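Journal club prep — side note

Before the paper discussion, L.F. wants everyone to see what a predicted structure for a comparable chain looks like in token form. Sequence:
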Amino acid sequence: MDKQVLIENTIVKIKQLPEPKLMQGNDFVAFLLSRAEDKIMIEGIQKLASDSTAFEFLKEEDDLYTMNDLKEK
């Protein structure tokens, strides 16, 4: 089923709901949209962080500690 047909079928069903159920449906759709927006935002932040060169200087810095510094292995 393509997106447009799914939207039309959903609208037909929504129009049949009594008002209290319509309000619940509206709240649920708002929740779904919020989750989708959060996911997009989180993925964007992760992409920015992974592409960032803010910590590139650490790659050139000598290690302060080695395995020999560990008391227990």
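L.F.'s comment for the group: The longest helix spans residues 19-51. Keep this in mind when we get to the figures.
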